[in-house]
């Protein structure tokens, strides 16, 4: 091999070493000044409309975007969100729209299917949400909240509920220590004061007039499906959660109602009392052509925009009656 080549391969000269040192120094300074690289947030498809729920009928698996137990809340969204479904719905049915939407917007999202009653015969024992809401709150929701807090390291959670999922957690908040663990409660098609649908309110009133309403509630409890009366206006359950201070001052509540609610009758049963920490919204007051009914509340793009604003009140966006929520 020629001598001049051997000399060049022996190593960089003093000038080259100096230039390399400068490059390395600049690179190190640049890296030190950069923030830690964050993993890009996933983008899930967000379907709207009741057809999205039908595609998951009977599916108890986690909806897209929910139950990532490695998720850590960001500074922008420090509370993980727990989604609470309605009567007879599973988590996948009820949250096929909002679970991926919230995940796309940077939230840690969690959900469960609760309220199956082992006291009922098959196949009724597989129907969600029919057992006593007291039992669901005590035996299912309370430990689930603790699990979410332990996994995420958060101090509190936010609730987003639909139908029964707006009133079941009120027992947890009021009687099971949840007031210290919940920051915001966002409620779709809420049942704050019960429903009189299908004449249930008249029936309860008639039974009460002859002293049989309490016995009817005990019979419902013995049937394995006490939910059939717990959601009725005037039930012992609703009287208990509505007594005294019904809505705790340390929690921000949002109640989202639809005028076309055929299950919560009247729909004004969803109103919360006037208070600094309570926001009542009839969605059609914002967008008259938002024509969804009770079940559709969880799949409507206008209501979904209100949910995002309620969870992030410091950064609300105007509701676009003809558009989709951000990051759909």
Write the SSE topology.
Blueprint: H1 3-8, H2 14-33, H3 50-54, E1 81-84, H4 91-94, H5 98-104, E2 109-111, H6 133-152, E3 157-162, H7 164-175, E4 182-188, H8 200-209, H9 213-223, H10 227-230, H11 236-242, E5 252-257, E6 278-282, H12 283-286, H13 301-311
Parallel strand pairs: 1-2, 1-3, 3-4, 4-5, 5-6
Helix pairs in contact: 6-7
Describe this structure in words.
The protein is built from 13 helices and six strands. With 328 residues, the protein is of the alpha/beta class. The chain has a single domain (50-311), classed as 3-Layer(aba) Sandwich (Rossmann fold), CATH 3.40.50. Strands 2-1-3-4-5-6 form a six-stranded parallel beta sheet, sandwiched between helices. Strand 3 (157-162), helix 7 and strand 4 form a beta-alpha-beta unit. Helix 6 crosses helix 7 (164-175). It is globular, with a radius of gyration of 26 Å.
């Amino acid at each position: 091999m020629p001598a001049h080549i051997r000399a060049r391969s022996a190593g960089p000269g003093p000038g080259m070493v100096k230039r390399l040192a400068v490059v390395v120094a600049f690179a190190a300074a640049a890296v030190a000044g950069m923030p830690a690289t964050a993993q890009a947030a996933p983008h899930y498809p967000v379907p709207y409309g009741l057809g999205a729920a039908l595609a998951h009928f009977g599916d108890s698996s986690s909806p897209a975007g929910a139950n990532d137990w490695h998720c850590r809340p960001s500074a922008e969204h420090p509370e993980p969100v727990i989604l609470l479904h309605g009567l007879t719905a599973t988590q996948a049915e009820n949250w096929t729209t909002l679970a991926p939407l919230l995940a796309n917007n940077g939230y840690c999202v969690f959900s469960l299917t609760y309220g199956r009653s082992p006291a009922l015969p098959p196949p009724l024992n597989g129907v969600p949400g029919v057992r006593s809401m007291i039992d669901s709150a005590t035996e299912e929701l309370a430990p689930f909240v603790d699990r979410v807090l332990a996994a995420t390291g958060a101090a509190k959670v936010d609730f987003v509920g639909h139908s029964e999922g707006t009133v079941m957690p009120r027992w947890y908040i009021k009687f099971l220590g949840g007031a210290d663990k919940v920051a915001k409660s966002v409620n779709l098609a809420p049942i704050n004061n019960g429903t009189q649908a299908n004449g249930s309110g008249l029936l309860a009133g008639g039974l009460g007039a002859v002293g049989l309403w309490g016995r009817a509630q005990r019979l419902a409890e013995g049937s394995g499906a006490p939910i059939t009366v717990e959601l009725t206006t005037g039930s012992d359950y609703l009287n208990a959660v509505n007594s005294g201070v019904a809505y705790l001052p340390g929690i921000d509540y949002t109640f989202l109602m639809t005028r076309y609610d055929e299950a919560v009758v009247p729909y004004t049963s969803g109103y919360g009392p006037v208070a600094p920490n309570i926001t009542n919204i009839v969605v059609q007051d914002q967008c008259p052509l938002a024509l969804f009914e009770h079940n559709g509340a969880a799949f409507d793009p206008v209501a979904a925009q209100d949910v995002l604003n309620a969870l992030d009140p410091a950064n609300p966006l105007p509701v676009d009656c003809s558009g989709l929520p951000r990051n759909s």
